[in-house]
Write a structure and sequence with these properties.
mainly alpha; 80% helix
């Protein structure tokens, strides 16, 4: 019972450790390597399916009246765009390839849109699902416009049109965010009993997210293990995202506090869709910079794990 209680209380940390352990076992034990190689494509393919399902479950709980624009939505977007602009200026003026690489990794972390699953953790912490969902949609749309404009400033040889980059981001938004939202709202109207039953299953979406996180962690560890970069640069690419994580959560909560919604605003700015960040780095920037958003996955979930533990122990979110 003590082990079960620990696993429930520290579900995100257990998921991180489990994903890491499974990858290391299947990548280093000779008898397991063939199974690991066969399972890898399946693991990557099932991620959007799990995400779609857990978001549908979460959105079944949304009050339509909460789906409206709030003042902190606007201020967070202004803040994020300002940070992106400052980082682009720093990258352009950076001296040395290593400094430029680390700054590019930091930029990717900040430029990432809010994670679609942020609503799941926000609900766990007592924040508003509706306000988070609206911000997530806005944030992804803004990203689809702003990032394609900024990329040529960082890499002048980027071979992609504004429309192509925008559609790639928007396709991700429609697939894993807008469609499950519309489906959940439709089910609330047409199948209210079924929707209420799904919404009534305690922590269902959260534990689905834990499964998703284990897979993402395994893939992240794989990228770190196979990275061809020097030790000092590797350390910066893995540790700089910790500072970014703490800074974004802190700034988001500060903005949200002024409007009585620090939990939602903190998650909105701090919990990132790092899959988009990794894709940006691999496709348009320096592939090694993808290590930074990969590390961000781990740091943001450790922050979330601590917040959830504190909330369940003391009945409130301290930070």
């Amino acid at each position: 019972m003590n082990v079960l209680s620990f696993m429930k209380r520290w579900s995100l940390v257990v998921s991180l450790c489990f994903g890491t352990l499974v990858y290391l076992l299947f990548a280093n034990v000779p008898a397991l390597v063939p199974f690991g190689m066969a399972a890898e494509p399946w693991a990557e393919g099932v991620l959007p399916v799990i995400l779609f399902a857990l978001l549908f479950v979460t959105f079944c709980k949304i009050d339509v009246r909460d789906l409206r624009l709030r003042a902190w939505h606007v201020w967070l977007e202004v803040l994020r765009l300002a940070l992106c602009g400052l980082l682009v200026a720093a990258i352009v003026s950076a001296v040395g390839d290593h400094s430029r690489l680390v700054l590019t990794g930091v930029f990717v972390c900040v430029a990432c849109p809010t994670a679609a699953a942020a609503a799941v953790v926000t609900e766990k912490l007592g924040g508003g699902i509706g306000s988070m969902t609206i911000f997530t949609i806005i944030d992804n749309v803004v990203t689809s416009v702003a990032v394609p404009l900024l990329l040529p400033l960082i890499e002048r040889g980027v071979d992609v049109t504004f429309a192509q980059a925008s559609l790639m981001v928007l396709r991700n938004v429609a697939t894993v965010l807008v469609i499950p939202l519309l489906l959940a709202l439709a089910c609330r109207k047409a199948l209210p009993r079924m929707t209420s039953a799904i919404a009534g299953v305690h922590n269902l979406a959260f534990y689905m997210w834990c499964v998703n996180l284990s897979i993402v962690t395994g893939l992240t560890v794989r990228n770190i293990v196979h990275a061809t970069v020097s030790g000092w640069t590797m350390a910066l690419l893995l540790l700089a995202p910790l500072g970014v994580t703490l800074a974004l959560f802190t700034m988001g909560k500060a903005v949200g506090h002024a409007y009585g919604d620090s939990v939602s605003a903190g998650q909105a700015l701090g919990q990132k869709n790092t899959v988009v960040g990794i894709w940006l780095a691999l496709t348009f920037l320096d592939p090694l910079a993808a290590l930074a958003p990969g590390a961000y996955v781990i740091w943001q979930n450790l922050v979330n794990a601590w917040q959830i533990w504190y909330k369940e122990k003391y009945g409130r979110v301290k930070w």
